[in-house]
Specification:
By secondary structure, the chain is α/β, with parallel strands linked by helices. The chain contains 15 helices and 14 strands.
């Protein structure tokens, strides 16, 4: 089954074409359409076994961008399929499924309405995600589509961990609660790490650390999400590239009153002007922060200490609520490529049974590897994530089930 996977942002479309079978999968192509709606839009197409192909032209909207990438897929020179008839399905990344979805879903009119009803919960993501679905309906009418939600894996979190101590009517009327994000990644790398270490996913206590420009950590108890650091929005929890992470809400009220900030400006402050970029004034890229720290920048060194300490605190807290820990997993851009972050987070966790192998960790970037010593009671793993493969797998699973 040849599946097109789309991840639509406000001005971009990331895509992969994956040939799925019951025995495995094969990546046929991947790419990205950028600067949609802006001047000099760019499509970068990477077909397997062929040279990278780039197109620079005006791309006014998502439908035009998707039409252009579909043309690349069937192009005589740069394509990977003979015609669009060879596409069997399209899978989509959708940021927010609210309380509607505990699994991926085959798209139908009801699912579309439910995605729309979550617009207020994810105003920067869900509208763009839905544009991809509607564009495909327009371009390839009748082709099956599946939506995979960042929030669905976290629907198993118990109420004691997802509720806020606000007047209950805010939950009843407005559904204000913790939802969590990065769910597809957390589930995928936890299962992969269990396979690497011989643990049973369904009977293990796991902490997964998805750390990149956006970052979250999840407690997975016996195969189910039990708690996670992101909350009602992705701004809660860990320090991130431009997001502040957990903060006393009273401090935000104080700042807003002092500076006369409107709600949009306050949102911009916590989501786009904070994190390691805002604190240091340097960059949201951890490589830049590490370089600055090595060159003596004190604020860069301090924010790295803050970053690592916050993550270590979540690991310890989640071990406590699960009454033990079997496995720590690092993934995401920083988790997969940051040996210093992995080493510093695991430093001092010997009391929990972690014996970290510094030599095994050194220089490991973008690969799957066990980083704990053989005698370690708690295993430590770096595992590369592949959210597009999760979307393709769920699409294959649901459509195969529907046809049986």
């Amino acid at each position: 089954m040849v599946i097109l996977v789309l991840n639509c942002g406000s001005s971009s479309v990331k895509y992969q074409v994956i040939d799925m079978t019951s025995e495995g999968h094969r990546l046929l192509a991947k790419g990205i359409v950028e600067r949609i709606g802006l001047s000099e839009s760019v499509l970068t197409h990477k077909p397997a076994g062929k040279p990278v192909y780039e197109i620079v032209r005006s791309i006014p909207d998502h439908t035009a961008g998707i039409n252009l990438l579909l043309g690349c897929l069937t192009d005589e020179k740069h394509g990977v399929i003979g015609s669009l008839a060879e596409l069997h399905a399209v899978g989509h990344r959708v940021a927010h499924g609210g309380e509607y979805f505990s699994d991926s879903a085959v798209v139908n009119p009801t699912v579309i309405k439910q995605i729309e009803s979550c617009f207020e919960l994810a105003p920067l993501h869900n509208p763009a995600n839905l544009k991809g679905i509607l564009s495909i309906e327009n371009i390839l009418p009748g082709i099956p589509q599946v939506a995979t939600f960042d929030t669905s894996f976290h629907q198993t979190i118990p109420a004691k961990n997802y509720m806020y101590a606000l007047p209950y009517r805010y939950y009843e009327e407005e559904r204000v609660r913790k939802y969590g994000f990065h769910g597809t990644s957390h589930c995928f790398v936890a299962k992969k790490a269990c396979e690497m270490t011989g643990l049973d996913f369904e009977s293990s206590k796991i902490v997964t650390c998805h750390i990149g420009n956006g970052a979250s950590v999840t407690a997975i108890l016996n195969g189910k999400s039990y708690d996670t650091s992101m909350g009602f929005t992705p701004a809660d929890g860990l320090i991130m590239g431009t997001r502040c992470g957990e903060i006393d809400p009273g401090a935000l009220i104080y700042i807003a009153e002092k500076e006369g900030l409107s709600y949009p400006k306050l949102s911009d402050l916590i989501n786009k002007q904070s994190g390691v970029a805002g604190f240091t004034g340097i960059s949201s890229d951890m490589r830049d922060i590490e370089n600055a720290s090595e060159n003596g920048d004190q604020r860069a060194s301090l924010v790295l200490d803050m970053y690592d300490e916050r993550l270590r605190k979540f690991v310890g807290a989640y071990a406590a609520i699960m009454e033990g820990l079997d496995l720590i997993v690092f993934t995401g851009g920083v988790g997969e490529n940051g040996p210093n972050r992995r080493r510093r987070v695991c430093k001092g966790l010997e009391f929990m049974g972690v014996v970290f192998d510094n030599e095994a960790n050194e220089g490991v970037k973008g690969q799957d590897k066990v980083l704990s010593a053989p005698e370690s009671k708690v295993k430590v793993v770096v595992a590369t994530t592949d959210e597009e493969l999760v979307i393709a797998s769920d699409t294959f699973r649901l459509l195969k089930k529907r046809s049986e």
